[in-house]
Amino acid sequence: MQVAEQRGEAATDFLGVTRKVLAACEPFGSLHALQLIHNRRAGRVSCFIELDLPQMHPALARALGATVFGDAVCLDIATGPETDSLSAQNSRLPAV
């Protein structure tokens, strides 16, 4: 299941993206790290997700329609036309 399809619309803020990603990752175990990177030119937000159990990365990637990139799962999400609230270039959240 795609996080973008679950939302039904493009992302407009980091908080909304973070909540959706956290909810989608919950069945796969504890989150070790989450990094959101906003690319304004491409109109995308890249989410790098690391779980406490790296063995779960392939299953998480399959469930989200993402890819495993190094030691993280990389999820690419389109942003909406009004991205003023996505002004931060990089957001790193502590372990949950």
Description:
Helices cover 26% and strands 32% of the residues. With 96 residues, it is an alpha+beta fold. The chain has one domain (3-93). The protein is globular and about 35 Å long.
Q: Which residues sit in consecutive blocks of at least 5 with pLDDT less than 50?
A: 4-8, 83-96
| Class per helix and strand makeup | alpha+beta
The Cα radius of gyration reads 12 Å
SSE pattern, N- to C-terminal: HHEEHEEE
The oligomeric status of these chains comes to single chain
- The percentage of residues in β strands lies in 25-35%
Helical proportion? Answer: 25-40%
Gap between N and C termini, in Å?
A: 23 Å
Tally of DSSP β-strands: 5
Question: TL;DR of this structure?
Answer:
By secondary structure, the chain is α+β, with helices and mostly antiparallel strands.
Any key phrases for this structure?
5-stranded antiparallel β-sheet; single chain; 96 residues; 3 helices; alpha+beta; disordered C terminus
Map the helices and strands:
Blueprint: H1 3-7, H2 14-25, E1 31-39, E2 44-51, H3 57-64, E3 67-69, E4 72-78, E5 90-93
Antiparallel strand pairs: 1-2, 1-5, 2-4, 3-4
